[in-house]
Amino acid sequence: MSRVFGSSYFVARVSRMHGGAQKVVYKIECSNGFSCVLYVWDLSMNYFKEEKANEDINEQSYGSHLFELNNRYLTQHGIQTPALYDLNKARDRYSFDYALVEYIDGRMAETYFHHPDSRVQDKVFQRVGEMLTAMHTNERHVFGKANANESSMSECHLLQMENAKVQLAYASQHIEKIRSNQSKLLDKLYELESKIQPRQQYGFIHGELGPDHVMVNDKLEPFLIDIEGAMYYDIEHEHSFLQMRFGDFYRYLKNDALDHDRLLFYQFHHHVSLTSGGLKLLHRGFPDQQFAQGLADYQSERALRFIEG
User: Fold this and answer.
1) How are strands ordered across the β-sheet holding 139-140?
2) Domains of the chain: residue spans and CATH
3) Which residues sit opposite 26 in a β-bridge?
4) Per-residue burial over 169-198, b = 16 or more CB atoms within 10 Å of its CB, e = otherwise
5) Whole-angstrom Cα Rg for the chain
6) Max Cα separation, the chain?
7) 26, 17 Cβ separation under 8 angstroms
8) Which parts of the sequence belong to the Aminoglycoside phosphotransferase domain (predicted)?
9) For residue 21, is pLDDT > 70?
10) What is the pLDDT of residues 140-197, one digit of tens each?
11) Are 172 and 179 in contact (CB under 8 A)?
12) Is the pLDDT of residue 133 over 70?
C-alpha cells in the first residue's frame, strides 16, 4: 500500500467481498480512512480453471491482462468503471497477478429492484440503459477483444454454437431430462443457428452483464465491474442475458432494433451454458451449493421449454 499510495497508508482491516466463481475480491481499509479493493487472479481458486486453460482467445474472460485492457478501453470511451490504481504482474513474491482498484461506496444495481422510491429506480436504471447504449453503439466490423484488429472468416455466434454442444454434452451426463432429450436439444440448436443471416457489425459488450456486475454509488451513478469478458460481439448476446437477469427492469435497457433470430439463439445458448455452469459449481465445491443446484435446475427447465410443443 505504501509503495502505491504513500507512507501514510497503513492497512487497518482486510475483508473478503462478494466473490464470483473466478477471481477473489477483498476490501482494504486504511487507518487514514482510505479504502480500495484488491483483485486476485489466482487460477487455483477459479472454479472454471479447466475451461480457462483451453479457451479460444475470443472466448477468454479471465485474467489481469484483460482487466487492464478493458479498464483502459472503457475509461477512454467514457464508460464508468472503478479506476485501476496499480497492477502487479511480476509474480516475484506471489504466484498470481493482483490489482488495487477504486472502492465504489455503494450498492449493486440489483438492490434497487426493491427500492421503495420509483423515482430513484427510474434514475438508476435509466442511467444503466444510457451506459449500455453508449457501449453497444460503439461499433466495428471485427469481433473480438478491444485490441483485436484482424478480421475473422467466421462469425462470432459460431463460438457459442460449439460451446453449446460441449455444455450440452456435460449436462446430459448429470440431468436425466437433458440426457433423454439431448438429440432434440441439439436439433433445436442447429435449427436456431440456421436462421441467422450473415452480419459483420459488432458492438462493445460486457459479456456477462447482470445487475450484480453494476455498482451504483451514492450519487446513483452506475459503474461496471467484472469487466474481463468485455469485447466486440453481437449485442444480442448481451441483450438475451440482460432480459434474463434484469427481469421487469429490462424495460429500461431494451433495444427495438435487435435481430430476433440471433436473440433466440443466444437465449437458448445461455440456458444450456448456465445449466452446465451450475452443475460444475456443484461438482467442484462452490460454497453456495443451494445456488449452484438452483441455477442448474432452473436453466435446464428453461432450455427444455424450447423443445416443448
Assistant:
1) 139-140, 202-205, 231-233
2) 2-102 (3.30.200.20), 106-305 (3.90.1200.10)
3) 16, 38
4) ebbbebbeebeebbeebbebbeebbeebee
5) 20
6) 68
7) yes
8) 72-244
9) no
10) 999 999 998 776 778 999 999 999 999 999 999 999 999 999 999 999 999 999 999 9
11) yes
12) yes
Q: Which three cell numbers stand for residue 201?
A: 457489425
CA distance 212 to 107: 9
Mean pLDDT throughout 17-45? 88
Task: Count helices and strands (H / E) in the chain.
Answer: 10, 11
Beta-sheet pairing, 24-30 with 84-88? unpaired
Contact 164/306 with Cβ under 8 angstroms?
no
Q: Model-level pTM greater than 0.90?
A: yes
Query: Tens of pLDDT along 270-300?
Result: 999 999 999 999 999 888 999 999 999 999 9
Span 198-238, pLDDT tens digits: 998 999 999 999 999 999 999 999 999 999 999 999 999 99
Read off the C-alpha cell for 186. Answer: 441439439
pLDDT in tens, 234-244: 999 999 999 99
**Quick one: angle between helices 260-283 and 235-246, nearest 10?**
60
Residue 111 · residue 117 · CB < 8 Å: no
Nearest 5°: the CA angle 71, 76, 79 is 70
Grid coordinates given for 284: 467442484
In which residue are the cell numbers 481499509 written?
29
Tell me which H or E stretch contains 140: strand 139-140
Q: Which residues contact 34 (CB under 8 A, 6 or more apart)?
A: 5, 9
Residues 246, 170: Cα–Cα separation, whole Å = 27
Q: What is the mean pLDDT of the chain?
A: 93
